[in-house]
Structure formats: C-alpha cells, structure tokens
Amino acid sequence: MPVKVNGQYLVPAPLVDFNKTYLSSENGETLGSEYSITLAGTILPNKGNPIVDSGTFLSSFSQDSWASSKSPDDDPNHGVGLDDSLLSLMGKQEQIRKLFSNGQSVDVEILDLNLSGGGSGIKFVGRVDSINFPSEGRWVNPCPYTVNLSTSSFKESVGNGEFTDNHSEDEFQYFIRSASDSWSLSEDDAQLYDFSNTDQTAKTFTVTHAVNVVGQAVYESTGVTSGVPNYVNSLAPWQQASGYAYTQMDIGATNVVSGIYFNASGTLVFGDSFLGNSAGLNNYIVADRKITEDIDVAGGSYSINETFRIFPSGSYNNGYPVIHTTEASINRAENGISSVSINGDIVGLNTYEIETSGAPGVNRLVANKMKNARDYYVNYLNSDVASGGTRIYHLARQMGEFTWLHPEYLSKTEGINPKQGTINYSYSFNDRPPHIIPNSISEDINVSDVYPGQIISSVPVIGRNQPVIQFLNARTGYKRTLSLNVQMKPFVENWLADTGVIIAASGFWNGATDTLINNWTSTNKPSVLSATEFTKIFDAVNPANEVGVVSNRVFYSAPNESWNPKTGSYTYSITWDYEKTT
To answer: Which domain holds residue 250?
Structure first.
C-alpha cells in the first residue's frame, strides 16, 4: 500500500498502525476522539525513496512514477557503494526528518494498492508527535524508523460518504479534548421581606458556574493562510472549545443541577418543605448575572465563569429585583405621643435591559439596578395600599406594633447612589391624632378657657399694713381662645398646582402677575381652600354653640391669621368673650 506524505511517496512503504481513543468526561459523556497513527518504515542505503545521488551524495525525494508503483522491481538501484552506505542512510534520515517537520501538520495518504498513483484511501492531516530512529539499526543496512502521528479527523470518507469531509465517523460538531462543568451555591446574608407578614423573610442565594473546555488542533490542510494554520472550519483549538461551550454545555441559571436547594428537574424551584413557603411563593428570579470569559490561545482552552443571585418572587418585594433590609427605632411615651423611626436600604439587582435608543440598528445591553431600586421605592414602597397609607407607613406600624400611627410622616431623608444602584431612607412617624385640614403635615389645635372670677375692691389705708379688700358681689365673664398652628406640605409640592407656572431656570418668577401672586398668597391659603374644615373647627370651639350660653351675649375679638406660602406655615387665633346663664 503506497504511503504518501506531503506529496512524497515513502519507499519501501511503512507499515501503518491505527489506534482510536475516545475522550470522555468523568460522568461517562463522550466528548471526542483521537487517532494515533504509527508509521513503521525501513531505510535502505541503495534502494527506495528518498534517493541518494551516488556522485554527490545529495538526498531528495524522487518524483518518478516508480515511487508510486506497488512493485519492488521498479525501484532502481542508487549505485551507492558499500563503503558509502552510512553516508547514504544519514542523508535519507535527514530527508525524512525534514518531511515530517513541515510546520504543525503533515498531509498523509494511505492509498489503495489497486490504484497506481493513489485514489481512494485513508487521508488525513496529522500532527507529528515524534520521529524515532532506534539504536537497533546501528546505522547499518537496513535502518528502521518510526513516526508517530495523531489526528481527530479525516479529509474524506473511504467509503460512500460515511461522514462529512474533515470529520470522522463520530461526526462530532466540535473537536475538544476535555470539558468541565461545576456549580456552587451559597446562602447570602441578605434577606427579603414579605409585607403581608413582618416576621417572614426569605433568603437569597449566590450561584457560581464555571465551564472550562480544552479544544483540539484539527487541520484540513497543511501550511498557513493569512498567518493562521489551516484549521478545520478555520477554528483554532480555543474556538472549537468556545463553540462547544456555547452549544453543548448548560450556560445560564435555568440549568442549575439538582441538589439540596433544587428539585430533581434542576429548575429554580425550591421545595416548600425546605423554605416553608406557601404555594405560589417558591419560584425564584435570577439577577446580577456577571460573566467572566477567559481565552488561552496557546493552550487551546476557553472558559466561562458566571455568577448570579437568585431570590424568591411573589409576595417578596412584590417580585421587584431588589434586596430590601429595614430596621426600626421605637420611642414609647408613657404620657403623650410615641414615635417610631424606620430606616431601610434598597439594593437594586441587575436584570438587564435592551436599550434601542442609541444609533439606528444598534442595541445595547444596559444594567438597570438603579431603575429597579427606584421603581421599587417609588412605585411600591411609597404607593398607597387599599387600607390607606403607604407601605413604608404600614411597615413602620407593624414593626413598632402600633395599633395607630399617623400616616403623614414627620420627617424623611433619602440617599441615592446611582453607581451602586442603592437607595437608603429614613422615615419618622408618631401616633398623633388624625388631621382635620387636608394636605397638612402637622396641625395643633389649642383651646384656652378663662372662667369667671370674683371682682374685688382693694383700698389702701394709711397706717394699715395691707389694703382693705372687699367683694363687690360681682364676677368676671367667660373667655375662650382658639389657636391653630398648621404646617402645610412643602412649597414645591403645592406651588405648581397653585400657580400653574414653572419657575424659570434663573430662579425668578418671570411670569408673575398680580392675579397669580394673589392666588398664591391669598386665594390658596389653607383657610380659603379648606374653608369647610376650618368652619368645622370654628363651630366646634365657638361657645355660642354650647348649651347654657346666652346667644346674644357672645362677642369675639379680631381674628389673627398668618400665612407663609413659601414655607407652608399657617397660624390662626381668635378670642371670644361670652356670658352663660349659670
């Protein structure tokens, strides 16, 4: 059987030994295969190919037709004398070493004996692993040699198209040597809060997934093109590895393997018996996915490391991808008003979004942790529930175990960090009675009564150490004072609604008119906008509406009203003098 290497025939044709080894992972999955080919040949000093010129002793490969013939009778004698046999053998060894040192691969054809010059046969581009001229030859006639080659594909099928060109009978999509796929899951310190039950929290978890694949160098022809070896499908070993990682391995959180935290199907569903969740609350959401890609061009390997957090959906944070932690400080007064301060930290998680607002046809994957944190804080925590009041209010009431808290906070502070995607807040509430004036932050209603006293005459007397005091058989009148101190919502929250005008960038009210200013300072003051509520307070305190008060004996002093539309501060006071029948 003729053996042809890089277009040159080896004569005598070496014996060929084929061994196929499957490459498998520890779980028994077959990843690929590799063929080891051994060419065991013999060099004759005065015969065969390569040849040696008897006059110059220069060695070369013959291109004559005899080199491909199956008959040893066609092999001409080189005419090298016996004394020059060693020199001939060394020249031929050099030619063989040169033949198998052509870059990273050699083109090998083991041809059909019935087709002179080659035809069907085993054809492959193999890697040269070693060349050996053993000591047994002693550099004398004959001189054996061994060439070890390896390959993972064949240029074509010997039979009737048993496999695709530049593949093998296994038809592996990618040529890889090894692959590993490892998962790690750990519980986080962070917990999620369920607003329906302040005592119930759920854990979050961090999942780490590492994929590492080592590819094979597989060639479809010798040499290089544009400085790159002629790999099969133009894929270098690391590219073979990356292709296998993307298409054959489980990338992404939905492929987490079965374990203590996962059910048998390997999906992100946690058993109710493990977390104690009620039905419908055990589906988990994936967020904060981060991918690290490592490429080793020389080593032919490709690896992906991905980490992500998973947390329960449903009632927990209403499904918003955030971590929300809270703490409360409670001040209970034995007599008077008790208060509670609630502090919270919201950490937005990246679920990522596709942004299409860039250049035409260009979409970008953008992080949205700040958006998620803001949506949760604004649209959920600060939204009203059916029973009234925001969720932050109800959270403070539940954590402080208050039957009643005033829904309008006393104060709040907020901190926002867009880079970290975090929002921290602090709210203060107390159990003051409900307000009467709409849109007021705080209101104090003070009623002061002065009751009748005796009227006396005090007359100084000369020589007496104290005056003469005499009851005049008369009493003073009744007196009542009403004082209102109301703090309305801040200026910015009311001003636009009151005026309908936006302040210029300069900070000046360029569009101010006397009508608009009057609306702001007079027409829209609390006693006008909330006249009905003020009338209720006035009528409730007015002594004329009490039993026993003489109806035509009630008189009031000039009411005193003060309104600062910028600060929202409002005060009102009035005093009545009246007479009762008893």
So the answer is: 179-319
159 within a domain of the structure (yes/no): no
Instruction: Encode 346-381: b = buried (16+ Cβ within 10 Å), e = exposed.
Output: bbbbbbeeeeeeeeeeeeeeeebbbbbbbebbeebb
pLDDT value at residue 500: 54
Structural domain contains residue 210: yes
pLDDT in tens, 539-557: 999 999 999 999 889 999 9
Q: Which element (helix H / strand E) includes 328? A: strand 322-331
Q: What is the pTM of this model?
A: 0.69
Which residue, among 163, 479, 421, has the nearest Cα to 287 in the 3D structure?
421
In this structure, are 343 and 370 located in the same domain?
Answer: yes
The whole-angstrom separation of Cα 340 and Cα 474 is: 52
Whole-angstrom distance, CA of residue 373 vs CA of residue 416:
10
Q: Read off the pLDDT of residues 367-402 as tens digits, 9 standing for 90 and up.
A: 889 999 999 999 999 988 877 889 899 889 988 889
CATH number at 15 reads: 2.40.30
Q: Tell whether 268 and 352 lie within a shared domain.
A: no
pLDDT tens for each residue of 501-541:
556 566 677 677 788 788 878 888 899 989 999 999 999 99
